[in-house]
């Protein structure tokens, strides 16, 4: 926040943080502090784009070993996979879902549990996190880096500077926050690649158990659904078997993290529908098939339940189709 031009001391005082709370270079702040920090920041600088500005201003090295783990990767795609494997080292409550595509790659922020509708803290966190990711790679990769940014926050009432700051089109009001990367950047080698450092940091991360939280289960389910739904196999029993467990165990483990299989399935379908619609690629009938719906009308009903409008109207409102 200081790097973005805010009075950091005033923010600290307003958030109720003692100076000692910020002294450890690898310190972790309690989750309840995050909303207070941003409330204070917005009072000092009531700008719509503040989370993006702050995220872009975060200097390299702030996130310690995770920054260097990504920077020592051979290319950008590998860097995002390294981040996804150990992201909970620096952030609680969500994980990174990384997917290579013919036209580049995409990184999505997947909450680890149930999210309340209109969760302002989550919307700010999503925007800030994507801005950090863009800031990390912009300037070190061929321009432009970002092809598209999708945010969970509502559509702003007035024009904002988000697209100029991100250097890419921005879609608001999405089920999941996501960053789509241009193919030239997705395949670009990292100028700071260091295989020996990469291996050392990987071993350190594994020793400290910086990855592998139980909520990774949702990411694993989503990965299976992406391939199984188009084949008509996206039911709990089949997904459980693909994960090497019984259906009963799958339901129990999801219950332990406050989730249900139906909730994960609906969340995946909604975010995947957004991704396919904003890309302007597949026909609507093909989107329904990829999402595992038996027919177009069943998908239309589901989409209207999620968004309050039809797929065609939703896509048109965002300049697609």
Task: Describe what is shown at a glance.
The protein is α+β, with helices and mostly antiparallel strands and 321 residues long. The protein has helices spanning 8-14, 33-44, 50-57, 65-71, 76-86, 120-137, 162-166, 183-186, 195-207, 216-228, 236-242, 247-256, 261-279, 284-290, 296-307, 311-317, and strands spanning 94-101, 104-111, 146-150, 170-171, 177-181.
Q: Secondary structure elements and their pairing?
A:
Layout: H1 8-14, H2 33-44, H3 50-57, H4 65-71, H5 76-86, E1 94-101, E2 104-111, H6 120-137, E3 146-150, H7 162-166, E4 170-171, E5 177-181, H8 183-186, H9 195-207, H10 216-228, H11 236-242, H12 247-256, H13 261-279, H14 284-290, H15 296-307, H16 311-317
Parallel strand pairs: 3-4
Antiparallel strand pairs: 1-2, 2-5, 3-5
Which bin fits the share of residues in helices?
40-55%
Order of helices and strands: HHHHHEEHEHEEHHHHHHHHH
DSSP strand count: 5
Rg over CA atoms: 20 Å
The backbone outline, from C-alpha atoms, is: globular
> Mean of the pLDDT scores?
84
Q: What structural class do helix, strand and pairing data support?
A: alpha+beta
The major beta sheet can be summarized as: 5 strands, mixed
Span of the ends, CA to CA: 39 Å
Oligomer: single chain
Catalogue the unreliable spans: 210-214
Number of domains: 3
Total count of helical runs of at least 4 residues = 16
Residue share in β-strands: 5-15%
Strand order of the largest sheet: 1-2-5-3-4
């Amino acid at each position: 926040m200081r790097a973005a031009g805010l009075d950091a001391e005033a923010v600290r005082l307003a958030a109720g943080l003692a100076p000692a709370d910020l002294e450890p270079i690898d310190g972790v702040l309690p989750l309840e502090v995050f909303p207070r920090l941003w409330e204070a920041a917005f009072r000092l600088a009531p700008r719509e784009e503040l989370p993006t500005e702050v995220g872009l201003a975060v200097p390299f090295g702030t996130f310690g070993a995770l920054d260097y783990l990504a920077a020592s990767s051979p290319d950008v795609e590998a860097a995002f996979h390294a981040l996804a494997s150990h992201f909970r080292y620096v952030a609680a409550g969500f994980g990174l879902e990384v997917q290579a595509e013919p036209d580049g790659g995409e990184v999505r922020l997947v909450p680890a549990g149930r999210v309340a509708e209109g969760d302002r803290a989550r919307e700010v966190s999503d925007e800030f996190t994507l801005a950090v990711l863009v800031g990390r790679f912009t300037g070190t990769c061929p321009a432009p880096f970002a092809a598209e940014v999708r945010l969970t926050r509502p559509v702003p009432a007035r024009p904002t500077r988000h697209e100029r700051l991100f250097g890419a089109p921005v879609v608001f009001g999405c089920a999941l926050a996501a960053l789509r990367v241009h193919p030239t950047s997705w395949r670009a080698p990292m100028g700071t690649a260091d295989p020996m450092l990469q291996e050392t940091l990987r071993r350190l991360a594994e020793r400290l158990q910086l990855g592998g939280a139980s909520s990774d289960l949702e990411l694993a389910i989503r990965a299976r659904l992406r391939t199984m739904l188009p084949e008509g196999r996206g039911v709990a029993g089949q997904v459980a078997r693909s994960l090497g467990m019984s259906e009963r165990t799958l339901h129990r483990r999801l219950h332990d993290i406050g989730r249900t299989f139906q909730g994960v399935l609906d969340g995946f379908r909604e975010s995947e529908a957004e991704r396919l619609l904003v890309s302007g690629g597949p026909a609507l009938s093909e989107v329904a098939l990829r999402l595992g719906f038996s027919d177009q009308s069943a998908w239309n009903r589901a989409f209207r339940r999620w968004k309050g409008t039809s797929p065609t109207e939703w896509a048109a409102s965002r300049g697609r189709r």
